[in-house]
Amino acid sequence: MTFTAATDEQEFALRVCAGIDELAETNRFASATPDLARAIIDGVASLAEGEWAPLNRKGDIEGAHIGADGKVVLPDGFREAYQAYVEGGWNSLYGPVEFGGQGLPMSLAVCVLETLASSNMALSLNPMLSVGAIAALHHHGSEEQKEKYLHKLVSGEWCGTMNLTEPQAGTDVGALRTSATRIEEGPHAGKYLISGQKIFITWGEHEVSDNIVHLLLARTPDAPAGSRGISLFIVPKYHVNADGSLGERNDLRVVSLEHKLGIKASPTCVMSYGDEGNCIGEIVGAENAGLRAMFTMMNDARVHVGTQGLALAERAAQAALAYSAERVQSARAGAPDKTPVPIIEHPDVRRMVLRIRALVEGGRALVYYGCGQLDRGALGDEHAQARGEVLVPLVKSWCTDMGVEVTSLAVQIHGGMGFIEETGVAQHYRDVRITPIYEGTNGVQAADLVGRKLGMEGGGVVKTLLAEIAADCGDAPNVAALAKDCAEVADWMLSTASLDDKLAASVAFQRMCAVAVAGWQLARQAREAVASGAPGKIATTKPLIARFFEDHIVTEARGLKDSAMTGASLLYDLGADMLTA
């Protein structure tokens, strides 16, 4: 099954939703010109289509495994595909200039990660984690640590990971037990001995790069209980000598690989640290301040995981739409001509095709608008930064839920052939299913939205966004009405709702807000497509796709308001024993 990057749609979303031309007018992002943006879009498309996509099915069939020598073995071609990515300079796009990066906007870097995830989700997880590790070290590492690690991480010669989860501590990272004991004497004085086990560590061990820089949460001996007592440590696979060369291997190893539903070529590792009592790590920042540093990495990753939901939806959409145009079956109902037609001519299949298109394009509009706001925040715009922070849980949750729905619809359009692995669409469904779980489940995102983000500026950040949507959508009345519905739910949460009420309503509210923003951005795209034209077929298709989104996706979201405001009491009318017996 072939893959073609959605280059025209990406360029249009970058221009209209992220506002890339406006960003290029600033000193920091002056190099992000339209010509460079298009060159990046087309260049990564070539890499993805030519080298990454052909390995996707192979990776699913063969997967990753641990060899007799204890090393993680990947399917042939994965190391070469990753090295082609590094040699092309793709990992450095978003990296800080002082450490060899190109300093381009996040919205342009996300475009690269979208294309790579569409072509090969399992392989794309590797650079996604490195991008987050770079952000964490750049914001919280010492100058010595930055000089020591960032050059190689930015280039992609070394990879980064995130080590949070333990068998007894999933979302509750405050329950972790991995220990870090300060070394007072000897050549490693000032560093820490690390001891413990981590699970679900994506790309925790491999041979595609020369070194792996693990960012690991652990607890020092006298640390306070809970999340207040967590510290962040750099634990490299190979020690780094003073001249930057690699030294001896650190005392860490992969214990096993998880057997997963999807992303089978992405080695998800159980990692053990300090089996021989000699795992050396260095602290990032101060003791007991690790969670703040890790959240820098996690928030970055949440945007990228939302992008992965979009990416796999795009990949599955391409397969489903192609099949619907090729598969001939039955005459169209009521047609005088009884000649069989492609299934896309049947009303229910046409409905699914349009729904897929609307969801994918709405998701892309949301992702790129959110990234554009975060880019403005990086330039010092506090209003845009606050809005971007509100949009992060919307991007992560709605785009991953959307990815699950679209990949499922792709299987449905294929009918029985979709349930057969050889057609390839089942893989996209299996691969995307992890994304609503990654980096804080979507329920955690919703709790963050109503527990922290809604209260920013006394509710002003969210309500200003919703008011802007309502005011700007005179030509999209259902979107305007949904924004007002969201504002009504927000007022209830900020005034009379209990904490249980807020949390019970949080997923519905999150979905309502995400659909409102996506619908608004699609309406903006539709206007722009008509007013000034757009590449390819977009000038013709975008107004209709935006209208379908408004008439179908938005009206469904409006139906969530009443259920959201019913409160939490019904959830607890039956005891847990009655529900589980």
Per-chain topology:
Elements: H1 7-18, H2 20-23, H3 34-52, H4 56-62, E1 65-66, E2 72-73, H5 78-87, H6 106-119, H7 121-140, H8 143-155, E3 158-163, E4 179-182, E5 192-202, E6 211-218, E7 231-236, E8 238-240, E9 246-249, E10 252-257, E11 268-273, E12 280-284, H9 290-326, H10 347-378, H11 382-414, H12 425-432, H13 442-453, H14 460-472, H15 477-495, H16 499-532, H17 538-558, H18 560-564, H19 576-580
Parallel strand pairs: 3-6
Antiparallel strand pairs: 1-2, 4-5, 5-11, 5-12, 6-7, 7-12, 8-9, 10-11
Q: How would you characterize this protein structure?
A:
- This protein has 581 residues and is an alpha+beta fold.
- It has a domain at 442-572.
- The chain is built from 19 helices and 12 strands.
- The strands form 3 sheets. Strands 3, 4, 5, 6, 7, 10, 11 and 12 form an 8-stranded mixed β-sheet that branches. The protein has a two-stranded antiparallel sheet with strand order 1-2. Strands 8-9 form a two-stranded antiparallel sheet.
- Strand 1 and strand 2 (72-73) form a beta hairpin.
- Helix 10 (347-378) crosses helix 16.
- The longest helix has 37 residues, at 290-326.
- The two termini are 46 Å apart.
- Identify the overall geometry: globular
* Count of extended strands: 12
Report strand %: 5-15%
Cα-atom radius of gyration: 24 Å
Distance between the termini: 46 Å
* Helical/strand content category: alpha+beta
Give helix % range. Answer: 40-55%
Mean pLDDT: 96
| Largest sheet descriptor | 8 strands, mixed
Which regions contain 5 or more consecutive residues with pLDDT less than 50? Answer: none
Q: Tell me the number of helical segments per DSSP (H or I, 4 or more residues long).
A: 19
